[in-house]
């Protein structure tokens, strides 16, 4: 991934960049600067940027409500209306409007974070660092468990581990499966789905665009064979468009699944 | 041994992706059929399709995590 780009400018005297870290690279980024022992890295700065971008989007769209909105206003209103009508009210039901602010917040934050993958000069999706999807998934987890206990009391838990709609002989087995899938696998898959999609896209883009650039720029060394680089570059640009679709789709799916998990706590019998 | 464990994990992830791949194909194919038969229900079918895909995908994602853990 990033090492490929960095390896071109690799200086053998500093082995910091030259040694690939593989797995750790997906969980840590290089420190940009540190304030009093508190390290600030690129993902943190971009996370703040994403949060401010999401706030600015809503602020500028809704600052002056007009009878005939601007094109930008229509676009943002369409997005907000989609989250409200299709996700919050459409999935959870009429009381879903209570959870609409949360769902809109995570939708916009994840969307802006995903778009950083294809944004020029950034090219780094913050959601491809496990901490951010994991935190958002844990937030959803806390909310749906809290709502479940607040709406249904202890029966929320007992209905999961001892489901009464299943024959008695199967109840222990189904109960164990339901317990693991509700309390452990839900947050795990919610986080990993977003993380894995964005990592895969980031790796593909980095490899194709960087190798295309390396091949084309080494015309002097390998001659006509550097034409291969053009093909890789073209595929990289096609993947670029595909990744825009993936960014929107993953933000939608993350929000949709959060709404579904909250819905199962609000109406557990369904 | 390090190299072998890495390669085995890759094969394991490949195996884990077979089932969800078939499953997602069935889900999406049937959703397209449903939308073609009843276009007015397309919105509902699409939402349910994404849900079905998301739940089916979970198994492949667990394989993806195990690839890093191995």
Q: Overview of this structure, please?
A:
- The complex is a heterodimer of chains A (270) and B (70).
- Chain A has 270 residues and is mainly alpha-helical.
- Helices cover 70% and strands 3% of the residues of chain A.
- Chain A has helices at residues 2-8, 15-18, 42-62, 71-92, 100-115, 131-152, 155-161, 171-217, 219-222, 228-266; strands spanning 31-35, 38-41.
- In chain A, helix 3 packs across helix 5 and helix 4 (71-92) packs across helix 5 (100-115).
- Chain A starts with a helix and ends with a helix.
- By secondary structure, chain B is mainly α.
- Chain B has helices at 2-37, 42-69.
- The longest helix of chain B has 36 residues, at 2-37.
What is the makeup of the main sheet of chain A? 2 strands, antiparallel
User: Which spans of chain A have pLDDT < 50 for at least 5 consecutive residues?
Assistant: 1-12, 14-21
Determine Rg of chain A (CA atoms, Å).
23 Å
Order of helices and strands of chain A: HHEEHHHHHHHH
Report the oligomer: heterodimer
Strand share of the residues of chain A?
under 5%
Tally of helical runs of chain A = 10
Termini separation of chain B: 12 Å
What class would the helix/strand composition of chain A place it in?
Answer: mainly alpha
Number of strands of chain A: 2
Secondary-structure-based class of chain B equals: mainly alpha
Q: Looking across the biggest beta sheet of chain A, what order are the strands in? A: 1-2
Which two chains form the greatest contact, residue counts included?
Answer: A-B, 16 and 12 residues
Helix content of chain B: over 70%
Order of helices and strands of chain B: HH
What is the average of the pLDDT values of chain A?
84
Overall pLDDT metric of chain B? 84
Radius of gyration of chain B, in angstroms, nearest whole number: 16 Å
How would you characterize the largest beta sheet of chain B?
A: none
